[in-house]
Amino acid sequence: MALTPFFSPPPSLCSSFRSLRRGLFLPLLQAYPYTTSKGAVPMPETALMALRFEVLGRFNRARAAQLTLPHFVCQTPLFMPVGTQGTIKGLATNQLEDIGCQIILGNTYHLALRPTSELIDELGGLHKFMNWPRALLTDSGGFQMVSLLHLADITEKGVTFQSPVDGKPMLLTPEESIQIQNRIGADIIMALDDVVKTTITGPRIEEAMYRTLRWIDRCIAAHKRPHDQNLFGIVQGGLDPVLRDICVRGLVNRNLPGYAIGGLAGGEDKDSFWRVVAQCTAALPEDKPRYVMGVGYPLDVVVCSALGADMYDCVYPTRTARFGTALVPEGVLKLKNNAMAEDTRPIDSTCACMVCKNYSRAYIHSLVSKDAMGSQLLSYHNLYYMMQLSRNLHSSIVRGKFPEFVCNFLQKMFPKGDVPEWVCNAMEVAEIDISSCRARFRDD
Amino acid sequence: MKFAVKAWSNRTARAGVLHLGNVAAAIDTPSLLISTRKGLPLFIPPDLLSSLPFPDSRLLHVSPIHFFQGLSIKTISKIGGLHQLLGLHDYGFAAFPRDSIQCLPEATSTNKTGASFDNPCGRLLIKPAEYMEMISSMKPELWVTLADEVPAWVSDKRNKTSVDRTIKWLDECIALSPASGAVFGAIVGGSSLEERRRCALEVAMRNVSGYWIGGFGLAESMDVRPALLNAVTEPLPEEKPRLICGLELPEEILQGVAAGVDLFESTYIYHLTLEGFALTFPLDRTQINASNLAPSDVGSDPRKINLRATVFRCVYEDTSLQRPSKKDATPIVEGCTCYTCRNHTRAYINHLLNVHEMLAQILLEIHNTHHFLGFFRLIREAITADRFEEFCKDFVGSRYDHLVEDGSERACL
Questions:
Q1: Of the given ranges (A32-41, A161-170, B32-41, B344-353), which has the lowest mean pLDDT?
Q2: pLDDT of B294 higher than 70
Q3: Model confidence pLDDT, tens digit, residues A133-157
Q4: Shortest CA gap A279–chain B (Å)
Q5: Average pLDDT for residues B339-352, to the nearest whole number?
Q6: I need a surface site. Which of A185, A237, A426, B328 has the fewest CB within 10 A?
Q7: pLDDT tens, A335-347?
Q8: Chain A closest CA to B305's CA: distance in Å?
Q9: CB-CB under 8 Å, A363 with B85
Q10: Average confidence score pLDDT of chain A
Q11: Are A318 and A338 a contacting pair, CB within 8 Å?
Q12: Do B222 and B193 touch, CB atoms closer than 8 A?
């Protein structure tokens, strides 16, 4: 079976991959469709979808699309800010609308603890509870397994947490996670997956990938609202292309409304990161949205978009704001720095947000780490920056100017031309020419 | 700046009109100054500030001390003053050092060279000359001369010194007046009727546009205050505005209005907001009466609600299921037009408080400011209709005795 050249595995994996193909791969193919303890899983009917995904423009692998969800019509690529506990820290809903947020993330784990999904349901769902008129996405609670691992015990049944609120044990099963998310009512809900840190090696990764596939069926069976909530599956498999491939095919076979690439953005090296994204985006269906979870830095968003991803989420923009750091085209600006005390320029002279139009670096410097307003203003700017980046990605692809946009972006961020190797490699696979951004040896 | 008195009630309470160049409409008094930290509210973001009632909410208090640690005079001048610094071009700024939340006068450290203030960065001694430099760079619409405020318990000698010093610094500050901005002369005098009167007479002789009354809210008891306030306002010319800080609660505001004060800076909203309280007393004049506002037997205060209370959320314990009452999904005050009440419910704010989210304070500060401004509107209506005394009796009623007996002003919070 020939592999289409949609990714180039690093040399170290190549030889092992060939042996895998010869040795393990065929038996794995024969093992598929996999069996659960209850016997073979039948191919599912065409799943109900509560979304429409229409590609409006392309550049090689990159695509700009219109994603129609029950509560809002979105444009991709898009970044989703994280409102873990039913609010984006320090920002009001009308400000989020002004900034241009389309989808906001809520976290099942936290909301189930407080104020409980039952209360949210009684009050009409999270949209009504928060008064957010646009789209919402809820995570399954799975990521907390990785981030709170010392409190968690993972078995085939589900995950046991120790509640940080009252110390009582909490069991999160795929069924429970979906039920909670059904009550919360987000436009997109995530399957409970068994997620492992990419820095871990060994059989645990394979175990987690297969368990994720078994759990997706339990999620699908438990999902009571497929007509107005879209269940996304999450591709796991660590950094192993064979495992990733099995997972992708298993999920695609379930004909879900959308797919996420999970288990990344957890400390793995960038070279491994982009390759997994590239492999998955190549294998996932063209006509469904692709969501890279936990991304992140503006540079990562641009690279993943070039490789064909559509949706992203991360706490980074708001969290770094609370530490006094602003996102700017050159990278970051640390407002706590003493040099800012006399700087009367705006944070970013190219930014049209309320903060950059009205306030100087000096003023924000006087606020950060001392007054709540400092965090608020920086969070506002950073989210605006990410929304503007999303808008620019979408419009440049639609207008056929994507390579120019990417070059411009890289030139601002790497004025000396020192674009990181991993970005160059990824852009090569994405077939985007960034030679104009890279430093050259002068002939004369 | 222009000010004129329009109506009187109960001999000394007055309703007036204040014109400030920057504010499009005239501001009716008695009015509340919005408290700020470094020029912006503590929590309300600038793009939601404009959703507050207009033009009531256009007068902001700024403390120069907030800037002494964070922003140099040179930088503020380079930017062009407060309006440019804060992006608030159609607001009026009143500058005076004392911020009753975090910049309180420290009388023991004040000496003949300058006034000392305790603030989060430590203790700061401010001399008249550097104070005026900061005022000149800020360019507020109205500013107050440097004062030596002392608490109620100081010796007579110290109190007398504070008056002498305050007058001396007033003259020094006026001599260094910036080109623009109306100067308000500071009046102190502690708990001594004679010193209060002496200071007021001295300041009244100076060429100032208005008067700032200091030294209150520094541990004097509420029952001695009316006499002290009258000792200050009686000698002052009627046609010039009077501004006071240090009065917090609605009852204390009424004391100030009764004595003829026009502008108020209060920490009431701040304390309510931080403690998770929201104001709920009726703003419809016909609903205000002592029985409506009297505390219940259980001790709850009908004028405000504690949004941290579990009654606003569902509590599920094992098998029992408490259905939320209809109140949970209602706004803080039905019919209130503030951003918070138009958009959010008590249940949501309760949740935000429980999970320690900043949005709780933002929403509460918006509502409480909106509501407290409504209270000032009621005061103005009562004065204009010449029923101020009746209004005070209705509003305070039996609670006044309760407060006075208790002594501590924090009892009702």
A1: A32-41
A2: no
A3: 999 999 998 776 557 656 678 889 9
A4: 39
A5: 94
A6: B328
A7: 999 999 999 999 9
A8: 20
A9: yes
A10: 88
A11: no
A12: no
Exposure of B108 in the CB half-sphere (CA atoms within 13 A): 3
pLDDT confidence bin for A427, thresholds 50/70/90: very high
Bridge partners, residue B304, by sequence = B279
Q: Are B141 and B181 in contact (CB under 8 A)?
A: yes
Does A364 have pLDDT greater than 80? yes
| Gap between the Cα atoms of B201 and B170, Å rounded | 13
- Both tokens assigned to A327: 């996102």
Q: What is the DSSP string of B350-389?
A: HHHHHTT-HHHHHHHHHHHHHHHHHHHHHHHHHHHTT-HH
Q: What is the pLDDT of residue A146?
A: 57
Both tokens of residue B344? Answer: 């959010």
Q: Indicate which residues of A carry an active-site annotation.
A: 139, 313
Picking from A376, A377, A378 by the largest number of B CB atoms within 10 A of its own CB, the best residue to mutate is A376
Selecting from A85, A344, A375 the residue whose C-beta is nearest the C-beta of B357 gives: A85
**Calpha distance B398→B41 (Å, rounded):** 34
Query: How many angstroms separate the CA atoms of A345 and B107, rounded?
Result: 39
CB contact under 8 A, A94 and B323: no
Q: Enumerate the residues of chain A whose CB falls inside 8 A of the CB of residue B367.
A: none
* Residue of B359, B363, B367 to mutate when probing chain A, most A C-beta within 10 A: B359
How confident is the model over B22-48, as a mean pLDDT? 94
Across the interface, whether the CB atoms of A363 and B86 are under 8 A apart is answered yes
Euclidean distance between CA atoms A79 and A394, whole angstroms: 11
DSSP 3-state of A229? coil
Mutation for A interface: B121, B332, B358, B365, most A CBs within 10 A? B358
- By Cβ distance, the residue of A87, A93, A366 closest to B357 is A87
| Of residues A115, A358, A380, nearest to B351 (C-beta) | A115
Determine, for residues A87 and B352 on separate chains, whether the beta-carbon distance falls below 8 Å.
yes
**CB contact (8 A) between residue A342 and residue B48:** no
Q: Name residues whose C-beta falls within 8 Å of residue B295's C-beta, 6 or more positions apart in sequence.
A: B301, B302, B399, B402
Alpha helices in A153-269 (DSSP H): 174-184, 203-222, 241-253
CA neighbor of B313 nearest in space, from B351, B352, B342? B351
Please choose, from the candidates A260, A91, A122, A257, the residue with its C-alpha nearest in 3D space to the C-alpha of residue A184.
Answer: A122
| Average pLDDT of the residues of chain B | 87
Chain B residues in contact with A123 (beta carbon < 8 A)? 324, 328-329, 345, 347
Structure tokens at A419: 């674009």
CA-based nearest distance B234→chain A, Å? 40
- Angle (deg, nearest 10), helices B388-396 and B358-384: 140
CB atoms within 10 A of CB B249: 19
Q: What is the CA radius of gyration of chain B?
A: 21
Model confidence, pTM: 0.89
Sheet strands side by side (includes B2-9): B2-9, B13-19, B27-29
Parallel, antiparallel or unpaired: strands B59-62 and B31-35: parallel
Say how far apart CA A397 and CA A42 lie, in whole Å: 39
Using only C-alpha atoms, what is the Rg of chain A? 22
Q: How far is A114 from chain B (nearest CA, A)?
A: 7
Please state whether A193 falls in left (phi above 0), alpha (psi between -120 and 50) or beta. Answer: beta
Q: Could you give the ipTM of this predicted complex?
A: 0.90
Is the CB of B48 less than 8 angstroms away from the CB of A85?
no
